[in-house]
Amino acid sequence: MAGISFPGVGSGLQVSEIVTAIVNAEKVPYQNRVTQKQAEFTTDISAIGSLKSALQEVNTSLEALGDADNYQQRTASGRDDFIGISSTKDAAVGNYSIEVDALASSHKLMSGAIDSSTPVGEGTMTIEIDGDSFDVVASATTTLSELRDLINDDAANDSVVATIITDGTDQHLVLNSKETGVSSEIKITVDDIDGNDTDGTGLSQLAYDALAATPVLNMTEVDKALDAQITIDGNVTVTSSTNDFKDAIDGVTITAKKVHDIAGGDDLSKATISEDNSNIATGINAFIESFNALVDLSDQLGKSEDGAVGALAGDSMLRNVMSKIRSQFTTDFETGVSSSGKTTYSMLAELGVRTERSGHLSLDSDTLDDLIDNDPNKIQNFFVGTDTATGFVESTEELLEFYTQSDGLIDRRIEGNNTQISKLEKDVEAFNVKMDALEARLYAQYNSMDTLVAQLNNTGSYITQQLDNMPGVVKDS
């Protein structure tokens, strides 16, 4: 506080030092208590926040184990120059021989030579592929390049691409179907202004219908519209409008890339579909790693020995959440139905996950591998659950989210700590106002006392002087 900072004029007392000492006698202990409380709340927020993060990591690590698609997957091998192969988990395990007999191709037509500046002919051209058609109208002045643009720009055209090949002053119109397969064959009919729709003059020179009773072949077929064909295991012939064969073998997609020449010495392609359960061990190890990290953090936060006390030593929330998670490890979860029709149950340890003396988890790979080889459904049902029961993952996730979700136990505790910190800050403001008032009051009191002492000193000096001046008064020597 700004005020008198010099010794008392009348009393000689160190007023500032006295007032400061009295104020500090109240202020310092209070400040120490507040600082300690703020530190406790801040430390708790940090500690409980790190616990939340570790719990969320455990929750995240369970996601893969809770996804049924990650179990009993299939691996397809046998890719070579002739085929590509992929599979879903629905594919049957087995070995197959595959011969590529033909590749799919699109239909390609080319017109004869037409002068680039000469109108192609007036009339209407109808282009049809697999039952879908669109019309292009050519005027008396439409050139071949303009006809190309009319074809490509037509809003109804989603089946054919028109291009021009130029040879000197002559041009050739090329039509190519966008799709492959026999069904992509192009049919072109014309309504020629000259009344003859199939001759080789005017717009009719672009007519093409190989399937008509009387074929019209005024354009040249460059590439036939062909289906792809493969033979599986030497007996089953399968065709496809594309080079992809989906579910010719259940759950398997075969892509034809090159035709086999068996007579020329090509070997048949060999495809193998095998079961892949590597995701199971990967998922369990990820869970174990995240849980062990949680155990390490819990030990650190809850430590109360050797003179080093953790931030959450003796904390009921830390103790409860760890206890509840561990109880999941000894809970039976439904895993299937026995041959006698009874529901079967298993605990985590039966899958090879062990709890060590330290509280950490470890994996007995031999136990897990044996179960994967003999009963992968049991593992899937344990983690994912069945139609009638919740699995380990969902049950544990619900437990963890009770603590970690927005407005969960941890968030409410952090919010409570922040509320207490805000209250302390307001209390400090009020206390500082109180101390300012005390300081002002003390200065007023001591200054008043000092003034009174000065007045008394002046009065004493005056009386002494008057006595000294009285007749007959003898001063002490």
Automatic annotation (TrEMBL):
GO terms for biological process: bacterial-type flagellum-dependent cell motility; cell adhesion. Residues 11-107 form the Flagellar hook-associated protein 2 N-terminal domain. It holds the Pfam family FliD_N. It is found in: Secreted; Bacterial flagellum. Residues 225-458 form the Flagellar hook-associated protein 2 C-terminal domain. The keyword Lyase does not apply. One of its GO terms (cellular component) is bacterial-type flagellum filament cap. Belongs to the FliD family. Required for morphogenesis and for the elongation of the flagellar filament by facilitating polymerization of the flagellin monomers at the tip of growing filament. Forms a capping structure, which prevents flagellin subunits (transported through the central channel of the flagellum) from leaking out without polymerization at the distal end. This is Flagellar hook-associated protein 2.
